[in-house]
Amino acid sequence: MQHDIMRTLKKEPFILMESCPGPTNWQSVSKLKRPGMLETASLQAVAHGSDSVMYFQIRKGRGGFEKFHGAMIEHSGRTDTRQGKELKKLGSNLKKMGDSFLGTEVPAEVAIIADWNYKWGIEVTSFPKKGTKYFDEVLYYYKWFHDQNIMTDVVRADSDLSKYKMVVAPMMYMLTEKQADNIKAYVKNGGCFITTYFSGITDYQDNVWLGGYPGLLKDMLGIWVEETDTLYENESNLIQICADGFSQKEYTCGVFCDLLRVEGATVFGKYGKDFYQGQPCITENRYGKGKAIYIATKPDEAFLGALFSKYVQETGVIKVLKTSAGVQAALRKNETEQYLFLINYSAEQQKVELGGKLRNILSNEEESIAMLIPGDYAIYRL
Questions:
Q1: What is the mean pLDDT of residues 163-167?
Q2: Is this model's pTM higher than 0.85 or not?
Q3: What single-letter DSSP state applies at residue 283?
Q4: What phi and psi, each to the nearest 5 degrees, are found at residue 302?
């Protein structure tokens, strides 16, 4: 997600300028990178839009604060070490890739809205749930798309949203009138917009929009939030489904529970417990040619998977490639070529069906199946 954030700041490739080739020296426990991690972490950056990978530091210093910080050349002065061999292999593979992939874009059809202003507004000022970490919330919703090999941009609410089939905005706490108009125009023109609890609450001076939450988005979402219950760590509630298209009829939720008044939206789910049992918590509202979905509570991962799968299917969002858990498939492309990246993060050998013969640019062989040992990767030119 960090790489996707960097790439979409300027909508162009970036360079990973400082990557530690070994253990850092400033953690409470500075673990070694496991075999293959140096390469897979580097290729992960390239797969998500980096045009190269650089390292700090070249040679470990003899003194000072970073004398035990990872380096390409250790205090021994030798390069025939395990780490040295991995660096040489990575350099060789980057050379084999050549320069034709430089400047290629990541073809994302899904966008996640994220903003540091939301982080400051939530974490620094008075917020109903102390200890809430904004980017942890964003990551929670981003993760499903990553695991499904769906390329994703991370954008601001005033970005051009027109190219995306789906836009997800977790805890979009702050909102300007211009941004609200931008989102409404996206949905009116056929977009699929999903947002959650604590969205559209304040302007960028952290002053609450009056008239009911979620402020400027009430009419688009077809709901307004009357109250919000924040739950203790040992508390939970239930989402009881009252619509088709879900694999279960009941899911777990917690942390935040908005109490909604429905004003035009269709109810997909209701709370299963507490004094607000039976009140709506998942809604969809038709707005122009598009749809606006509101998630009033923090759902479990099973519900997110069911909900996102429903709208991925409806909107035609494309998955790069079907792989088993622990293997990521990512795509970069330009007008003439595409590059498929496969990275095995799992602890087991993985078999990936490529759907046809593709040329592996690292081995220069045509393959229809990729066999990846733990920590291994492959790059194909399409």
A1: 98
A2: yes
A3: E
A4: -65, -40
